[in-house]
């Protein structure tokens, strides 16, 4: 009942306000994060310190403040996402080089669009089916709250995005006959450290989701990395980079290494726009790493080589 009241009495009516007005709330949130309500400050500071050991305390503090400012905008833009119109969304989220996706579509290739929680991914989820000829697909885990799970997916899919449960990915792709562009935000912490791909990322051993690579090899999908640039407040531009349109010849780990390093490069350029409040490095490093990697590679080769 509370969630329903929160949405219909507060959040959705707020979303109808112009962003110029809503950003006043963002400025308030920013002040609160810096003073009274330091949201996940310990997590943010530890993540920044480990990722940028060469930076001074002053430099890290500057990134932290810039992150809180950007994060405050994301919260407000997330509220706006409940009711933003197709016209406004398309004017605020653009693609710099859509011809890359058009060429893949003409060649009959489905695509895995891969990146991370960098800049405004919520607007991309909602806009993706408006941006490309491919049928947009999003893979997600259900939320604890049935109301929010249904409502968020309803709002995200209102312009044509298909949101599918992670447990039915295999059956979906085996039965699907459309050319699809599947959005994969690959920087979440994997559920099982022993099934993850381990590599250096932001100066520390990191467990990376291997799903993009498995899907690419299983269904011969092209892999396209995207970088979302914040042009100015409330305006974003997506830039596409082809990783491969023929994954089969690639070796174990190549795709994962490539898209993760591309994300790392973007984070280093403009660190404030990544989601530092996420507990990204919570998985324990396996003790038998060389043996684990050898087993993973062998299993991969049996399946795909």
Individual helix count: 12
Structural class: alpha/beta
Based on CA atoms alone, the radius of gyration comes out at: 20 Å
Low-confidence runs: none
In one word, what is the shape?
Answer: globular
State the total count of DSSP E strands.
9
Share of helix among residues?
A: 40-55%
The largest sheet is: 7 strands, mixed
Give the oligomer, counting copies of the same chain as homo and different chains as hetero.
Answer: single chain
User: Could you spell the SSE succession in H and E letters?
Assistant: HHHHHEHEHEHEHEEEHEEHH
The tally of structural domains comes to: 1
Give me the side-by-side strand order of the main sheet.
Answer: 1-9-8-2-5-3-4
Ends apart, CA distance between termini: 53 Å
**How much beta, percentage-wise?**
15-25%
Average pLDDT, to the nearest integer?
Answer: 95
Walk me through this protein's architecture.
The chain is α/β, with parallel strands linked by helices. The protein has helices spanning 2-15, 19-34, 41-51, 57-80, 86-92, 99-106, 121-131, 146-156, 169-175, 211-219, 254-269, 289-304; strands at residues 93-95, 111-115, 135-140, 162-165, 180-185, 197-201, 204-208, 222-232, 235-244. The chain has one domain. Strands 1-9-8-2-5-3-4 form a 7-stranded mixed beta sheet, sandwiched between helices. It has a two-stranded antiparallel sheet with strand order 6-7. The longest helix has 24 residues, at 57-80. The model has no long low-confidence stretch (mean pLDDT 95).
Question: How would you sum up this structure in a few lines?
Answer:
With 305 residues, the chain is α/β, with parallel strands linked by helices. The protein is 49% helix and 18% strand. The protein has one domain.
């Amino acid at each position: 009942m509370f969630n329903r009241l929160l949405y219909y009495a507060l959040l959705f009516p707020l979303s109808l306000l112009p962003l110029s007005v809503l950003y006043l709330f963002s400025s308030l949130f920013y002040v609160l994060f810096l003073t009274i309500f330091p949201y996940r400050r310990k997590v943010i500071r530890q993540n920044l310190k480990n990722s940028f050991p060469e930076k001074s305390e002053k430099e890290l503090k500057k990134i932290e403040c810039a992150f809180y400012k950007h994060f405050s905008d994301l919260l407000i833009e997330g509220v706006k996402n409940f009711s933003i119109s197709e016209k406004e969304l398309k004017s605020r989220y653009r693609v710099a080089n859509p011809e890359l996706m058009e060429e893949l579509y003409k060649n009959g290739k489905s695509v895995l669009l891969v990146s991370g929680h960098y800049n405004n991914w919520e607007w991309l989820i909602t806009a993706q089916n408006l941006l490309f000829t491919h049928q947009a697909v999003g893979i997600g885990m259900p939320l604890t709250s049935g109301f929010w799970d249904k409502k968020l997916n309803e709002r995200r899919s209102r312009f044509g995005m298909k949101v599918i449960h992670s447990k039915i990915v295999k059956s979906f792709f085996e039965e699907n006959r459309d050319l699809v562009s599947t959005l994969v935000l690959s920087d979440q912490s994997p559920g099982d450290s022993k099934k993850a791909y381990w590599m250096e990322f932001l100066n520390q051993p990191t467990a990376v989701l291997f799903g993009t690579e498995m899907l690419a090899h299983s269904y011969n999908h092209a892999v396209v990395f995207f970088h979302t640039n914040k042009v100015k407040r409330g305006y974003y531009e997506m830039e596409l980079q082809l990783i491969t349109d023929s994954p089969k010849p690639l070796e174990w780990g190549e795709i994962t290494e490539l898209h993760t390093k591309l994300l790392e490069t973007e984070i280093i350029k403009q660190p404030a726009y990544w989601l530092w409040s996420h507990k990204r490095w919570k998985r324990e490093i396996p003790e038998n790493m060389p043996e684990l990697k050898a087993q993973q590679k062998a299993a991969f080769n049996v399946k795909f080589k």
